[in-house]
């Protein structure tokens, strides 16, 4: 558990910028942390009654100066070694933040940063952690199955130690419990990724389940499954979870996503459950690409959703 907290004692949040873009094949996502700060995440969190400190950005190798040639060192997982250097540092920061009794809010960067967040969140979690993965994509490829070689399509499979990731010690995170992993809002899977997800013990709520049961019922179920028997959960929010009409600034948009209110409803439920039972260990908010955005809209939505996850309410 991450400390006592009954709704009156506010959470302390530590913002960690992770401007990584080596996991995606479209540049610009490295500017995500700046854009989300520009959207005034601190004011949004203050409105949620949150004490917030900003630890700045991790240093990240630049593509321009990187000596790695994609694919050569690690088969079909571009820049995997460089990404590992970043996520190892991030994991240490995340674990340290949790030790201090604060909640790390990781601002991506591409979704590969979640490997570091989960690794750090799982450290010192005796009973393991659950994960709720809000995304259009499964991010369940491995180097063997990925059609793109982009590591941002692999972080969840990496945490579960699938395929080649079983031998990557900074990625494989046994304390991330597969049966406590829940994906929500999925609508784009590659063929082999679909097979891998079906085989896994993770629960997948696709857009179809949201259509049928509504976002509230789905997220309540997700919280139930993710928190069962573990020390807490990591929440990973890929902005492409939302419909591209709401968030134009993402690199891999997929139509048919959740709308603005559904997204808030989901994260408000996370906050509500956290108030009751103190389950939130860490959050990441990823894949905001300001180059593709319009008027910083996607970063604003990212900041607002983070505030909802930490308890900002309408009334
Ligand atoms: N975090 C993301 N936006 N992931 C997109 C992944 C897209 C595709 N499934 C791939 O593996 O290349
Ligand atoms: Mn995605
Ligand atoms: Mn993703």
UniProtKB/TrEMBL annotation:
Q: Which residues cross the membrane?
A: none
Q: Which PROSITE patterns match?
A: ARGINASE_1, ARGINASE_2
Catalytic reaction equation(s)? L-arginine + H2O = urea + L-ornithine
User: Can you name one GO molecular function term for this protein?
Assistant: manganese ion binding
Cofactor names from the entry are:
Mn(2+)
Provide a GO CC annotation, any one. cytoplasm
Q: Which Pfam families match?
A: Arginase (PF00491)
Which key words are in the record? Answer: Arginine metabolism, Hydrolase, Manganese, Metal-binding
Q: In which pathway does it act?
A: Nitrogen metabolism; urea cycle; L-ornithine and urea from L-arginine: step 1/1
Q: Which residues bind Mn(2+)?
A: 111, 135, 137, 139, 238, 240
What Gene3D superfamilies would the database entry show?
Answer: Ureohydrolase domain (3.40.800.10)
Q: Give me the comment on cofactor binding.
A: Binds 2 manganese ions per subunit.
Q: What EC numbers are recorded for this enzyme?
A: 3.5.3.1
Asked if Metal-binding is a keyword of the record, the answer is: yes
Tell me the GO BP annotations in alphabetical order.
arginine metabolic process; urea cycle
Superkingdom: Archaea
For the keyword Nucleus, the answer is no
Instruction: Provide the family line.
Output: Belongs to the arginase family.
Q: What is this protein called?
A: Arginase
Source species, please? Answer: Natrialba asiatica (strain ATCC 700177 / DSM 12278 / JCM 9576 / FERM P-10747 / NBRC 102637 / 172P1)
